[in-house]
Amino acid sequence: MGLYPHKYGLADDCTIKEVNAFKKQSNWGEMPAFFSLVSNSIAEVEGYMSYGFDNAYKTIIDRKNWNYDKLGRLPNVNPHSLELHAPLTKPKLCILHVFSEIGYELLAFPYVNGKVVDEYISGDPNMDFHVWNPTTMKYLVRINQLHKFIAFTIKNGDDADMALIIHAHIVVTRIIEKLHRDFEIVGEKGTDIKAAFASQNINPNLPPEEAIIAAQMENESSSK
User: Fold this and answer.
1) What are phi and psi of 94, to 5 degrees?
2) Predicted confidence (pLDDT) per residue in 26-52, tens digit
3) Mean of the per-residue pLDDT values for the chain?
4) What is the pLDDT of residue 220?
5) Average pLDDT, stretch 12-18?
């Protein structure tokens, strides 16, 4: 079974361009502004994953910023070219799925002494990175107004709108898979896109601020 419904005619490895083309086919060659807003956010994520534009993901995988004294290295590795070799242990990260008034975000946080931190830190021997700057390293993904687009799609959307939501989920899933290759993901928390869709789908008449964002906060409180 494919990642998209067969009737969509979309391959599992399709990009946002194919999803946009699918929308135009069903909408007289046009892309509505709301669809474009979400699509453009996803395109940015695809772009920096594919072409290496400056972004948080590129920054956190830069081994030059990894603390090899903590992570460990083989004894015969040249200390002046550590970044060419994988450390003995992977850096630890916690990732968090968040829906807010902005939309959806995937956030990353490091650990210090076994605790998640969310602040600028430099030179701490107990952290897996030499420097952690939340401004440039925390925000891995942002998809503007996705919660509202989910609510719209459930009540009034077409197949192409649904395909866009599926594609957003797939893109984020692939980023997380990439993270697992380089990092030890100690914790993955929050409400992901699939769970947000399910929450809104159960309560289609509620605004997404209640069905997704408020429900997310209630789930966080109950899990503590």
Assistant:
1) -115, 135
2) 899 999 999 999 999 999 998 877 665
3) 93
4) 66
5) 96
Indicate if the pLDDT at residue 224 is higher than 70. no
119-145 pLDDT, tens digit per residue, is: 999 999 999 999 999 999 999 999 999
Q: Are 81 and 74 in contact (CB under 8 A)?
A: no
Phi-psi group of 114: left, alpha or beta (phi > 0 → left; psi -120 to 50 → alpha; rest → beta): left
Q: What length does the chain have?
A: 224
pLDDT band at 13 (very low <50, low <70, confident <90, very high): very high
What are the tokens at 131? Answer: 């420097």
H/E/C letters for each residue in the chain? CCCCCHHHCCCCCCCHHHHHHHHHHCCCCCCCHHHHHHHHHHHHHHHHHHHCCCCHHHHHCCHHHECHHHHCCCCCCCHHHHHHCCCCCCCEEEEEEEECCCEEEEEEEEEECCEECCCCEECCCCECECEECHHHHCEEEEEECHHHHHHHHHHHCCHHHHHHHHHHHHHHHHHHHHHHHHCEEEEEEECCHHHHHHHHHHCCCCCHHHHHHHHHHHHHHHHC
Q: Residue type at 36?
A: S
Pairing of strands 92-99, 184-190: parallel
Backbone angles phi, psi at 12, to 5 degrees: -60, -30
Question: At which residue do the structure tokens 């942002």 appear?
Answer: 142
**In the numeric block, which tokens belong to residue 55?**
């972004």
Structure tokens at 167: 């594609």
